[in-house]
Amino acid sequence: MEIIIQPNPQAATDIATRLIARLLKEKPDAVLGLATGSTPLRLYRSLIAMQLDWRRVRTFNLDEYLGLAPDHPQSYHHFMWENLFRHINILPENVQIPDGLAADVPGFCADYEARIRAAGGIDLQVLGIGSDGHIGFNEPTSSLASRTRIKTLTQRTREDNARFFACAEEVPTHVITMGIGTIMEARTNLLLAFGEHKAQAVAGAVEGAVSAMNPASALQFHRDTRLMLDEAAAGGLQRAEYYRWVYANKPKWQQV
Ligand code: PGA
């Protein structure tokens, strides 16, 4: 894991933006895994501002609420089109987001996995982290080998996400999410985390034992995972000084 601590969320986002821009230049038909929530909003604004060429890029989103139609204002379909896709030249047929209205959920999930494989796998997956350590919507105790499937949200996640809905009861109870096993197959994972409320989950993921109780800790087994943190999200790390030192002393060829 590479831990990059920056003074504020925008500085951390700028590094993630540069990495994605570089990938799209090197591989114009790259396969990106995308995330929703408050955390990647700056990233999407920065990518839009760069006016990159997205015509051959394919994307797979991590998750979607079950029961919400694509045009529901809180659906992740709506989020992605509003906050990224409608501002770039991506082709709609190259956008994949789990279907919140899937009639056959297991069948849909198996097909989603098959589509990721057929695309050649995910080159770079953007991740946030829940205050409980979830990645995608893989809540604590999710199998570390899980694939795309239905999950039941914890009350904590429903409360965390209630701010987007009129009231907490409106937050769906079920979702479709890529599994931890799916995420582990992405060639690169970029996890962004900002704010004090993420500090405990980040510390557990980086310095704690690998455990399904903190799903992001599975990334300790991933070969190319980078965490982009602001100071507040890095606040629980014991070895923060070492991570800063590593970043400050990167050989020139490793710098981004
Ligand atoms: P947030 O959500 O970016 O809205 O904090 C992150 C997550 O739940 O993965």
Helix content: 25-40%
List the ions, cofactors and other small molecules found in this model: 2-phosphoglycolic acid
> Assembly type of the shown chains?
single chain
Shape: globular
Lateral strand order in the biggest sheet: 1-10-9-6-2-3-5
What order do the SSEs take from the amino end to the carboxyl end, as H and E? EHEHEEHEHEEHEHEHEH
Give the helix/strand class: alpha/beta
Mean pLDDT: 97
Could you tell me the radius of gyration in angstroms? 17 Å
In whole angstroms, the N-to-C terminal distance is 16 Å
Instruction: Please indicate the percent range of residues in DSSP E strands (runs of 2 or more).
Output: 15-25%
Number of helices: 8
**How many E strands?**
10
Task: Characterise this structure.
Helix content is 31%, strand content 16%. It has helices at 9-26, 41-50, 76-83, 105-118, 155-161, 180-184, 199-207, 240-248; strands at 2-6, 31-34, 58-61, 63-65, 95-96, 124-127, 149-152, 174-177, 188-193, 225-230. Helix 7 links the parallel strand 9 (188-193) and strand 10. Helix 1 (9-26) crosses helix 2 (41-50). It is globular. 2-phosphoglycolic acid is lined by residues 37-39, 128-130.
Describe the secondary-structure layout.
Blueprint: E1 2-6, H1 9-26, E2 31-34, H2 41-50, E3 58-61, E4 63-65, H3 76-83, E5 95-96, H4 105-118, E6 124-127, E7 149-152, H5 155-161, E8 174-177, H6 180-184, E9 188-193, H7 199-207, E10 225-230, H8 240-248
Parallel strand pairs: 1-10, 2-3, 2-6, 3-5, 6-9, 9-10
Antiparallel strand pairs: 4-8, 7-8
Bound molecules: 2-phosphoglycolic acid.
The site of 2-phosphoglycolic acid (PGA) has 6 residues, from loops.
